[in-house]
Amino acid sequence: MHPNPAFRQTPAQDNLAYARQVGFGMLTINSPEGPLAAHVPFVLSPEGAVADLHLARSNPIARAALPGRALLAVQGPQHYISPDWYGPHEEVPDQVPTWNYIAVHLRGTLSPLPPEALQGQLEQITAEHEARLLPKRPWTMAKMSEGAAARMMRMIQPFRLEIAAVDGTWKLGQNKPGPLRHRAAEALDRQTGVPDAQHLAGLMRGVGE
After folding, report:
1. ∠ at Cα 128 (108, 154), nearest 5°?
2. How far is residue 187's CA from residue 199's CA, in Å, rounded to a whole number?
3. Is 134 left (phi over 0), alpha (psi -120 to 50) or beta?
4. Does 179 sit behind a cis peptide bond, omega within 30 degrees of 0 on the bond before it?
5. 153 in Cβ contact with 114 (< 8 Å)
6. pLDDT confidence tier of residue 209, bands split at 50, 70 and 90
7. Do 16 and 48 form a contact (C-beta atoms < 8 A)?
8. Do residues 57 and 157 make contact, with C-beta atoms less than 8 angstroms apart?
9. For 125, which DSSP code?
10. Count of CA atoms in the C-beta half-sphere (13 A) of 134
11. CA nearest 106: which of 50, 31, 159, 150?
12. How does pLDDT run across 105-120, given as a tens digit for each residue?
């Protein structure tokens, strides 16, 4: 996490809400062989105390000695910020390149869940994300042919991260005067074809409002 307190003022509940909205992150643990990482969908409990996820049984994390400490890192929009975007050098000298971004870290204890927890977890994750695609009729496991779901579920294992700490960095140019930050946001808006650019620009404009 970025050490500047200006970028770390977002309340824990807002960080959890953002992680819930994204629903995908990088799970990492330490092992005797070194750090292990997996990119996973997850679902947060209503109060944000736990994150449920699943891994392929062949994944090194699934085969690690657990329970154990883990980090689930959720990446939001991000983009390079050019010093030129703040204005002419004569007006705003000695600016330097930087990167604006949102990142949320969920730290806690990762444990395997019993196999019977898997189907309910998969149904919950699917229902949450299918609901965002309305008015499309939601996909459910009932659409699978007989026996197909059971065969696939034998290849994955459910896990739970009990969340002990929530950290978030929302680096949106809070350390810059408003006019400079808005100039950079306008430049981001012109970066067509870059999905995160316009999203990040809007967040930068919202700082302090």
Report:
1. 70
2. 12
3. beta
4. no
5. no
6. low
7. yes
8. yes
9. H
10. 4
11. 50
12. 999 999 999 999 999 9
Alpha-carbon separation of residue 22 from 105, 171, 179 (angstroms): 13, 17, 30
Is residue 173 within 8 A of residue 81, CB to CB? The reply is yes
- d(CA 173, CA 181) in angstroms, rounded, equals 6
CA distance 19 to 52: 13
Q: What is the CA radius of gyration of the chain?
A: 20
**Cα gap 81→207, rounded to integer Å:** 16
CB 77, CB 200: distance < 8 Å: yes
* 130's tokens: 């299918």
Q: Which string of DSSP letters, residue by residue, matches 93-152?
A: TT---EEEEEEEEEEEEEEE--GGGHHHHHHHHHHHHHGGGTTSPPP-GGGSPTTHHHHH
Alpha carbon 128 to chain centroid, angstroms: 16
48-100 tens-digit pLDDT: 999 999 999 999 999 999 999 999 999 999 999 999 999 988 888 999 999 99
Backbone angles phi, psi at 173, to 5 degrees: 80, 25
In this predicted model, what pLDDT tens digit does every residue of 155-190 receive, in sequence order?
A: 999 999 999 999 999 999 999 999 999 999 999 999
The 3-state DSSP composition of the chain as helix, strand, coil percent (nearest 5) reads 35, 30, 35
Cβ proximity of 92 and 86 under 8 Å: yes
Contacts of 168 (CB under 8 A, 6+ apart): 1, 8, 10, 12, 14, 15, 18, 102, 103, 104, 105
Establish how many alpha carbons lie within 13 A of residue 191's alpha carbon, considering only the half-sphere containing its beta carbon. Answer: 19
